[in-house]
Structure formats: C-alpha cells, structure tokens
Amino acid sequence: MAIPVNPLSQSTMSSPSMQEYLLQGSILDSALESLLHRLRGLCDNVEGPETFHDHEMVYILRGTPSPAILRARHALDHPNIPWQLRYVGQSEVGDKNRSTLVRSCIDCATSDNLSSFLVEMGFRLDHEYVIKGYLFRKGRMKITVSKLFRVISPGVTEEIEAVSLSHLVELSVVAPAGQDAVGDDMRSFAEHLKPIVQMEKMDPKRL
Amino acid sequence: MAENLETVNSALAATQKLRCSVTRVFTHLREGVKSTKGEVSKESMFIRQLQEALTAVTSDFSELEKLSSSLHKFTDGIPMGNSGLLSLDPVQDKTPMYTQLLQSYKWSTKLQSHASLAGAMLTQNSLKRTSVPSGGLSAKRRKTQPTCHATPAHLVDNVVTTVDRSFNDLSLTVNRPQGTGAVLQATVGRTLSAIVILRGLLIERVIVRGYHENLHKDNGTLDLWTPSKYRVFQKLTDHAMAAMLHYHLPHLPEIGIRSFMTWLHSYTTLFSTACHRCGKYLNGNIPPTWRDFRTLEVCHENCRQ
Amino acid sequence: MQNQEKALELSLEAMISRVQDLKNSITQFIMKLEHEHETLDWPSVLDSFAIISSQINTLNKVLKSEKTPPLRNFILLPLVLAPERDEDLEKLTEGRVPAFNHEVVPNYLRTKAEPDIEEKEQQLMTQASQLTPEMIQQQITNCNRLANKVIEIVGNARDEWDVDDSGIRGMSGINTSQPADTNALITAVSFGKGLKIRPVQQAPLQQPSLQPRQDVQGKAPSSIKTNIKPSIHPYTQPGRPGQRPTMS
Amino acid sequence: MGVTCVCQWPVPDNKSVQQVVDMIAKRVELLGSNKSGTFCVDCETYQSSPMMMLQKTVHIIHNSEQPMTSYAVMEGPGSAANCLVADTMFDQIMQRLKGFYMPKKTPKVESKGQHYELGDFNVKIGTVTLGGHAKGILLEIEYTPCVVVLDCWNLLTEFMQGFMASHTPSLPSYLANRQDANYTPMDTIMQYLDHFNTFTGRKVVQQPAR
C-alpha cells in the first residue's frame, strides 16, 4: 500500500506535528462482500478499491522512562516502492465529545535497508505481521479493510496464517493537530456503514 | 460478323494495293529519266507514267477510304479494351468513371516520367550509402527492396535476439507500441541507453540517453522524442544518426542492424578510453565521442581530420 | 320543462366526458399490454387497473348523483333504420358503427339481458326460493368459516415473512461483526498481541494457538531472541559489548 | 546525478578562506563555466545516551541538491557505516527518540557555497563552517553523464587537473571500495561525512562500505 509520501510534508515541520484520527471496527469474512459493495458506492475510487499486501515489522527500543516503538512497513506486491517508517504516539481517547481516537504520528519514506538500520540503532524486532486488503478513499479520509496474518516462521512472509475470521476495518485521517472537525466528518461517514460494521473509537489500553 | 470480316479482308487487300502503287510511284521516281541529253518524248513519257501511277494511288486510296468508312462504326471502341467499353456508357453524368480513368492514366504516366527522370538524376549523383555499386545489382535490388521494411515480426525478433546474444554488455528489448513497427531499447554496459526505431529491419531513428536517464514517460510509455539532457549523449545521438545512414543496407538489412549494433556497442568504453589521436580524455569538456565506422577507432570529434 | 332538459343535457355531457376518460385509459392500458408486454411489471399494471376502476367509480357516482335525472324515464325511439352508410354516425362512433341498420340496432338498444342469461337467472332464482332458511343459515356459516380460515392463513404467512425480514436486518447488526474479533484484531495491530515471534521450531508438537501468549512488555526468553536474530539481521552479531574497540 | 568527487583544498597560512575561495572561483569561471546557484550540505550529529550499551553515533545529513531527503548515517564501533535514505520526516522521528539519541553539543557542520556548471560537469566550491567559523574548503566535482566510478575516474582526474593542478586528489578511499557499483547520491554524502569528520577532529574509523 505504502501511504504516499507527501512532498509538502516538510512545510509542516515547524508546525505542530501531524495527528491521526482513527475509528476502528471489524467485519466477518462472510459479510465482507456487502461491506465492500457499500464502500464502493460511498467512496471516491471510481475503478474499485486499491489492493495492498504489506509486511509490517514493529521494532522496539527498550529504555527509560518508556520504550520507543517504530513500525517499518513495506509493500510485498510492489517491492520497488519505498519502505515506510512510522512513529505512532500514545492514543488519546478523550471525553465523550471527541468522536474519534487521536494519536500523533509521523510517516517517513525510507530506503530498503531500514530494518538493518533500526537494528543497528539498537532496536529489536518485537513482532511482525502481514496485512492484506483493500484501500478506499473519500476526500481526505482513508478506509482500509484488511486481513491480518501472523507470520509463522520469522522473516518468511509467504508462510502465514490468519489471525481471525474477521477483516479489520479502519477509518483514518492524518491532519495537523487541532482539526476536530475531521472527527465529525468521520463520525458521519461511519454512520453510513451501519449496520454492516460498527466503527468505534477503541481504546487499545482497555482491551 | 462474317460481313465485317469480308470488309476487313477487302480493306486489307486495298491497303496492300495502295502500298504497291505507292511503292511503284517511288521506284519510278527513283529510277528517274535515264539519259540527261533529253529527248522530249522520253521526258514526257516519264511524266505520263508518273501521272498514271499517281492516279492509281489516288484511286486505290479512295477505295480504301470507302472501305474503311464502312468499317469505322465497328472499330470505334475496340482498340482500348475494356476501358473503351466504359466510354460507351451513355450516362456519363452519373458514372464519370471513364473520365476519371483517363485522368488517372494521365497522372500515372506523368508520375512514371517524373520518377524515371528523378531516377536518372539520382544515379548520376548517388549518395553512395551502400558499398554495392548501384548499376549491376539493380535487378536484385528491385526484388529485395520492398521486403525489408515489411519484415514479419518474428524475423525481426530473431535478428534482435541473435544480436542481443552476441554482445555481452549490450542488452536489447523489443517493444511494439504501435503494432507493427518495432522499437528497440538498447542498453550498452552501464554507459548509455538508446532507443532504436525500426521499420521492418531498417533503422529509422536513434536517440541516445544516459544510462540513468528515463526511457519512459511518466505514464509508462516509451519516450521517443525528448533528447538527453547531457551534452555527451546529445552529441552521440547526432553520431548515431550518421551511423544509421552509413550502415543503411536496404538489401541486407540484417547486416545493417548488426554492424550498427557493433558500432553502438563500442561505446561501452565511452568514458574510459582516451582519444587515439590526441591521447587525452577531454576536448571541450566532452570525452571522445567519435568511433570510426569501419575501424571503431576512438577519437574526439575535433580530432577526426 | 326547460330546467329538466337543461339538467339532462348537463348530466349527459358529464357522462360523455367521464366515459371518454374511461375509454382513453382503457386504450392506454391495451396499448401497454400490446407493446410493452415484455418489459411490463406488475406495479404498472396495478396502476392502470387503479385508474380504470376509479374512473368507473366516478362514472357510477355521476349516474347515481341526484342532479342526474332518472334516465330510466326517458325513451329512445328509433324512427328510421337505414341500411346505407351514415358518415356522421361512423364519425361519432369512431368507425365502429358504420350504419344504423337492422343488424346493430337490436344489440345497441336492448334493455334486457340475452335470453339464455335470462334463463340462467331464472333458474338460480327458483333454486334460491326452494331452499329452507336453515340450509341458508348453514351455508352462510360455512362460507364465513372458510373465509376466516383463509384470512388466518394469509395473516400467518405475512407474520412469518415479517419475522424473516427483521431477522435479516437483525443479523446485520449482530452477525456481520464480532466484538471479540474486533478486539483481537486491534490489540494485534496495536501491541502485536498474538503476533510475537514464538519458538515454533523448538516446539513443533505444540499447537500454535495453545501456546501461552507472551506479555506485551515482558521480556521474551533470551534463547528465543538469540535464535531468531541471526536469521534476520546478521549485522547485529559483531556488535557485542565485549568487543568494543577502544576509542582514541 | 553522476560520479562525484569531494576533496579538500588546503588553505595556506597567509591567506583567508574567503581569499582562496575567490581564487578558485576565478579559475573555474575562466574555464567558461556558468554560475548556477548556491548549495548547502549540512550535518547534524546525534549521540546515543550513555545508558545504552553501545556507543553509537547517527549523523543526519541534508543536501540541497536533494532537498526532500535526509541521509542518516550510523557509525558505531564494531559495525560498518550504514546509511539510510529517508525523507525529511525522519528528522522528526529522531526528535521523538530524545531519550535514546541526543544531539551533540558541538555545533553543526556545513559546507556552503557557489555551484558552477561546465558542460556536463558540475563544480561546487564550498566553505566549511563549524558553528559559523570558516574552517576550510571542500570542492565537489561531478561528472553527470556517468554512473560508474571505474569508467570515468581518469576522465574526472584530467578535468580536475585543468584547474586544480597540484591539488588534484587521488581516488578517495570511500570510492575506491565502490568503484564498480552504480554511483548514488548517498556516495556523495558519505564522502562529505568523511571530510566533515576530519574537520571536527573526530576520530574516523574507516570502515569498508557496503
């Protein structure tokens, strides 16, 4: 998939960092078709969704006060496009008024020696997974419907097994901090997906 | 029909007769008056005989004319074959085929005459693109020429693959963006890449770019027009055009391609070989871009003379 | 007298226009049936029926209205029958009745039903008069019972149908996603729960799903780490603490 | 992008850096080259925090020729220099790792100056500054059409002799190891890093490049 690198991202360097607004849900494989059908109708992709097949490796650097976690991701179906390095901050659930999960995030495109570089920086591979699915766009919203696979033997992305019988559904927007109107847009879009899938702000800490 | 045949026969006979009498007139005139001393009787006899002969001619001629006038009706359309029959079509306004036919015939005759003129001129000032003398092989050439730009695709592929295999650091790939015409992407070592446009097996255009320059446009199609941004490769494109003309062998297109590729392949050492004449690498900040067509000798463009 | 004539004229006009409407909609319907029978769907047929029946209703209303003088009291008397074509009549009837002759007049001007129908009616009347009141009562109850039964069946069928429908709707709320799966997927993506590299090679007998999942923050057994590292990142090997070269 | 050689031009004791730069610029202009803008290469250094077991250094280098790219070069004992090519967002990620990698106290090194074009050659004359103080001169000579060092080193040498005379460098040791590989902008960065390291007086552990 490789979220395209925004060449204008540099201009935002001085401004407060980018934030990701996120809603999550899941859909059983059996009902996948009806969800895709609805998304096809709702979203901007005229020629159906883009597909992606990515391998994500999560690296961790232990230390005080808290470990640093970086996610390295690369597309298995397009080996030539850059790898993606992603920093994801703590998720803030906020109060009832806030319609989505908000977390700071930094996306960075890199060359393919990323994993060895991270290891040399002292990071250790924490876990890895393969993710395969569809990507829809609606304005600046990004909707992914994807299946998560666990990697059976480390580093071998061909031998995989599904984590569950459901597809993960994520609705996200990356925007400069403080644009809470984004959340309302997302909330109203999520309404359109009911009752097939229930998009909610899931607090991972409570799960 | 038989009637006509008879008339024709008699007309033929009359013609023969006319011919006889005319011959007689001329023989008589040729013999002339035997002696110059001039007996009046002899002279007058000569004149009388001539008069007789001439009257015979006139009568024969009038007879023939009579016969031919009776034949005229029939012979009208015949000599022009089928097209003559077209002219008999009474509704000319609706089917102006005959007039068009005449027009086109006129034009094709004109074309032919112009072409033969041009051909004559060209043989006088030949460009000497080929090593074969133009005179002796004209028959052979006429046979081979039409085929070399309409070579079937698999033959082109075969030739390209054999050339591809014969050089280690020259790789060729064939594209056919517009159906029939093949476009070769040639990569020479890690020095340059070139696009060679073929028509059949004849090279039509060559463009040379750097090894790391894009051969494709943003939309993924081959970029056939943008020149290289590097001076060296712009120069090389010029040289390649010259080489293309030099190796132009319409009757042996395969050899043409092979020799062109051999020449192109010699550029693997573009940056690593010094000029053979002046012994330097640079001249005007450009490496030796010239390779002799026959010996592949390396030199700067300015050192050639 | 004049008033009566005026009323008659008005009511006739009204009737004629109603009948004209009715005729139009019937022709439209026939056209529909003839030309669009391939694409025709049930709702549009029902629409046409509804139009026709409403028009018949209004026609009946016109006939029964108080303003309409009792038409029964008027007499139509054919004075002359003519076997020739009558252009005016033909135009008036849109070509259906070309001449006012002996053939058509009895059909158009009759006031009674056809004889065989009359006969059948008579038969039924005699039959009815022969029945005893008890039998009539019995038949009425029978009929009612049957009707009730049919109503019940139809009602049941509709209830079942509704249940099915709501079942589908209900399912999409309940069964297209499972909260457990949602949680599993989100924890996996966020913390790698269930994705940690496990010593599959060392424990081939154990089912992967039965393995205890490692704690997110907890340290994995060192044997596992060292076994996995070299296979992924051979460069990490030289960098051991003990081998650090001295800096000058 | 083509084969590039970065080399140092010595500054004699009796002249200032600026004087020497002007002298070189004059020579290059005499060759017939055109000024085509300015350039800047800067380097920021992060040091791993003492609690980490291994002492490691990460240099973040930017080159104005590739304005959207950050080069992160990792140097550490016992490991070869490893260079990650990333976009500029990597700088922000480094800031998030404050607990582990701290920017070094020493000021930023950068090489800044004029950019000249001469046919297919590019010449950049850079003044190296360390926290605002001019420290020396770095010349960058690029031959754009060629991507293999082995092929065009002689040619490049001939070109450099044209205006550098006795200061013409020999093949940089970094390039010597990658003579046959395709040249990448990263290779230019590594050469700059080597030179920066000598300017800052850091100990340079020459590692075989990958």
UniProtKB/TrEMBL annotation, chain A:
Superkingdom classification of source: Eukaryota
Chief location of this protein within or outside the cell: nucleus
Alphabetic keyword roster: Activator, Nucleus, Transcription, Transcription regulation
Subcellular location: Nucleus
Cited function: Component of the Mediator complex, a coactivator involved in the regulated transcription of nearly all RNA polymerase II-dependent genes. Mediator functions as a bridge to convey information from gene-specific regulatory proteins to the basal RNA polymerase II transcription machinery. Mediator is recruited to promoters by direct interactions with regulatory proteins and serves as a scaffold for the assembly of a functional preinitiation complex with RNA polymerase II and the general transcription factors.
Protein family (similarity comment): Belongs to the Mediator complex subunit 18 family.
Subunit record text: Component of the Mediator complex.
Protein's name in the database: Mediator of RNA polymerase II transcription subunit 18
Encoding gene, per UniProt annotation: Med18
UniProtKB/TrEMBL annotation, chain B:
Subcellular location: Nucleus
Major localization class: nucleus
UniProt KW keywords: Nucleus, Transcription, Transcription regulation
InterPro entries the UniProt entry points to: Mediator_Med27 (IPR021627)
Pfam family, any one: Med27
Signal peptide start and end residues: none
Keyword Phosphoprotein attached: no
Keyword Coiled coil: no
Family indicated by similarity: Belongs to the Mediator complex subunit 27 family.
Protein name as it appears in the record: Mediator of RNA polymerase II transcription subunit 27-like
From TrEMBL, chain C:
Gene3D superfamilies per record: 1.20.58.1710
Coiled coil segments of this chain: none
Protein name: Mediator of RNA polymerase II transcription subunit 8
Bias kind Low complexity: ranges: 203-214
Region (Disordered): 203-248
UniProt keyword list: Activator, Nucleus, Transcription, Transcription regulation
Cellular localization per UniProt: Nucleus
Automatic annotation (TrEMBL), chain D:
Family: Belongs to the Mediator complex subunit 20 family.
Keyword Transcription: yes
The name this protein goes by in its record: Mediator of RNA polymerase II transcription subunit 20
Annotated localization: Nucleus
Job description of the protein: Component of the Mediator complex, a coactivator involved in the regulated transcription of nearly all RNA polymerase II-dependent genes. Mediator functions as a bridge to convey information from gene-specific regulatory proteins to the basal RNA polymerase II transcription machinery. Mediator is recruited to promoters by direct interactions with regulatory proteins and serves as a scaffold for the assembly of a functional preinitiation complex with RNA polymerase II and the general transcription factors.
Pfam families per record: Med20
This protein's UniProt keywords: Activator, Nucleus, Transcription, Transcription regulation
InterPro entries cross-referenced by the UniProt entry: Mediator_Med20
Subunit and interaction comment: Component of the Mediator complex.
